[in-house]
Amino acid sequence: MKKELTKEQRESLFSVLKARFEKNMERHKGIKWADVQQRLEASPEKLWSLDAMEETDGEPDVVGHDAKTGEYIFFDCAAESPKGRRSICYDHHALESRKENKPGHSAIAMAAEMGVDILTEEQYRQLQQLGKFDLKTSSWVATPAAIRKLGGAVFCDRRYDTVFLYHNGAESYYATRGFRGVISV
């Protein structure tokens, strides 16, 4: 299945992304929207992924530029963990390990379906340099293999003007915990 938006969907998404870009210039100093749009137009599948981020209330925005590859980096910049991606456990293995009261999905599988990665702890901390996020919610972040092997997973939030990293069983899920995505275009 080819993941491509219709012309109308592209135009609508460009409008939303451009408005957010212009409203939040402090997130991407020195970057011009015309350059970002040019990259987006050349990457229809990544545009589809950005639309999936938008449709799940992630509010993707440009947060950087990779000088080596020329790619623009987008993070979910919604104030709280995206509403359309909450109440999910960490990964498919955790989902399958639950005997009852299974959540509807997992962060890793949902991110893969969307064509994005979940933020690493380092990326999450970078995001928090751009504003105050997850003051009431939390977000799963990429978990080191050694922790995951033992059944755990990690998540972050911001409380008391500090970014915290916590642990939980990977099969746990809460109405206030989702995940934030990253994609390079």
What's this model, at a glance?
With 185 residues, the chain is an alpha+beta fold.
Describe this structure in words.
The strands form 2 sheets. A 4-stranded antiparallel sheet has the order 1-2-8-3. It has a 4-stranded mixed sheet with strand order 6-5-4-7. With 185 residues, the chain is of the alpha+beta class. The longest helix has 17 residues, at 7-23. It has 7 helices and 8 strands; from the N terminus they run H-H-H-E-E-H-H-E-H-E-H-E-E-E-E. The protein starts with 6 loop residues before the first helix and ends with a strand. The model has no long low-confidence stretch (mean pLDDT 95).
Topology summary:
Blueprint: H1 7-23, H2 33-41, H3 44-55, E1 60-65, E2 72-76, H4 92-97, H5 107-114, E3 117-118, H6 121-128, E4 138-141, H7 145-149, E5 152-159, E6 162-169, E7 177-179, E8 181-184
Parallel strand pairs: 4-7
Antiparallel strand pairs: 1-2, 2-8, 3-8, 4-5, 5-6
Please summarize the sheet with the most strands: 4 strands, antiparallel
CA-based gyration radius: 16 Å
Quote the beta fraction: 15-25%
Structural class: alpha+beta
| Overall 3D shape | globular
Low-pLDDT sequence parts = none
Spatial strand sequence of the major β-sheet: 1-2-8-3
Helix count, DSSP H or I runs of 4 or more residues: 7
* Helical content band: 25-40%
Total count of strands: 8
Q: Cα distance, first to last residue?
A: 20 Å
Order of helices and strands: HHHEEHHEHEHEEEE
Mean pLDDT: 95
